[in-house]
Write a structure and sequence with these properties.
The protein has a single domain, classed as CBS-domain. Helices cover 46% and strands 20% of the residues. It has seven helices and six strands. It has helices spanning 3-6, 20-30, 49-57, 68-71, 85-95, 115-121, 123-141; strands at residues 8-9, 34-39, 42-48, 78-80, 99-103, 109-114. The strands form two sheets. It has a four-stranded mixed sheet. The longest helix has 19 residues, at 123-141. The protein is globular, with a radius of gyration of 15 Å.
Length: 142
């Protein structure tokens, strides 16, 4: 099964100069755990609910005064929309992430793939991805 068959199509993108508060509100309003960060037509990062918790709230910064650029993760893990779901699951496990940006072959953002998306249509792949993500969590507790 291909990623384009199970991914969440389209993506709510936020600019790097928006506030972390705006990002948090969009995540709340759209029930998302992350937002791709775009500048012009380029994907430059991802901001997650965890980024806001750790880099803003836990650092005692004001979310309305802290930019997305300050809080976001600059490295973007992605998969192409014509990739196999098994390969996407391996990518999630390898990088210990629960979401991947989905690009077309023109390197344009066309969606987001989450473990939940895989779980709905490709349960075995989702299990492998989650096992890889959980491996990191289990090791951190030791």
């Amino acid at each position: 099964m291909m990623v384009r068959e199970v991914m969440t199509k389209g993506a709510e993108v936020i600019g790097p100069e928006a506030s972390a508060l705006e990002a948090a509100r969009r995540m709340r309003d759209y029930d998302l755990g992350s937002l791709p960060v775009g500048e012009g037509d380029r994907l430059i990062g991802m901001i997650t609910d965890r980024d806001i918790a750790v880099r803003v709230a836990a650092a005692d910064k004001r979310p309305g005064e802290c930019s997305v650029r300050e809080a976001m993760s600059e490295h973007v893990y992605y998969v192409f929309d014509d990739a196999d779901c098994e390969d996407a699951a391996e990518e999630m496990a390898r990088h210990q992430v629960r979401r991947l940006a989905v690009l077309n072959r023109d390197k344009r953002l066309v969606g987001v793939l989450s473990i939940g998306d895989l779980g709905l249509q490709a349960a075995a792949a989702a299990g492998r991805a989650l096992k890889g993500v959980a491996r990191h969590t289990d090791q951190a507790r030791q």
